[in-house]
Amino acid sequence: MAKDYPRSYRVADQIQRELSGIIRFGVKDPRVPSTLTIAGVEVSKDLSSAKVFVSMFGMEEDQEIREEAVIALNKASGYLRRQLGSRMRLRIVPTLHFRYDSVQEDAVRMSSLIDDAVRSNTTPDDSAEIDPGLNRPAGDA
After folding, report:
1. What is the three-state SS of the chain?
2. Residue (of 26, 24, 55, 50) closest to 38 by Cα position
3. Is 83 left (phi over 0), alpha (psi -120 to 50) or beta?
4. Torsional sign, CA 5, 7, 39, 87
5. What are the tens digits of pLDDT across the range 77-86?
6. Do residues 101 and 52 make contact, with C-beta atoms less than 8 angstroms apart?
7. Going by C-beta distance under 8 Å and a sequence separation of 6 or more, which residues neighbour residue 99?
8. Where are the domains of the chain?
9. Architecture of domain 7-119
10. CA 54 to CA 51: how far, in whole Å?
C-alpha cells in the first residue's frame, strides 16, 4: 500500500480538501473570486512545501483577475497554513505556494482546434473507388 500511494499524495489530498473549505469560508479578500477551486496540490517528498494549483471558472480571458487572486492567496498563505495546522495532524505543515492552473483552458483550446480540423477535413468522396494498396482513389497516380 505505501508504495502504491505514498504519504505525500495522501497529505496533498487532505490539504486540497481542507484548503477548499478554508478559502471558501475563511478568506475575505475581495480579490479572491467565489468561483475559485483548488485544482490540485503537489507536496514535496519531505512535506516541507506544497504547490497549490487553483483555477477560476468564467475568468479565462481576464488574466489580471487571475494574477490578483494568486497574489492575494500567496499573501494569505501564512493564515491558510496556520488554519491547516489546526485542522491536520502534521508535525510540520508545508509552506504553501499558489499557482494558476491553466489545464482547463488548454483543454478547451485544444478541443476547439480539433473541432476546427474536423470541420475543415477534406477526405475523398465516399463514392470514389479506393485502391486498398495505396489508400487513395484508384485513378490517381
Report:
1. CCCCCCHHHHHHHHHHHHHHHHHHHHCCCCCCCCCEEEEEEEECCCCCEEEEEEEECCCCCCHHHHHHHHHHHHHCHHHHHHHHHHHCCCCCCCEEEEEECCHHHHHHHHHHHHHHHHHCCCCCCCCCCEECCCCEECCCC
2. 55
3. alpha
4. positive
5. 999 999 999 9
6. no
7. 51, 52, 53, 54, 70
8. 7-119
9. 2-Layer Sandwich (3.30)
10. 10
Identity (one letter) of the amino acid at 120? S
Per-residue pLDDT tens over the stretch 38-56? 999 999 999 999 999 998 8
Bridge-based pairing state of the strands 95-100 and 130-131: unpaired
C-alpha cell at 117: 480540423
The position carrying cell 491553466 is 102
Q: CA-to-CA distance for 10 and 83, rounded, in angstroms?
A: 18
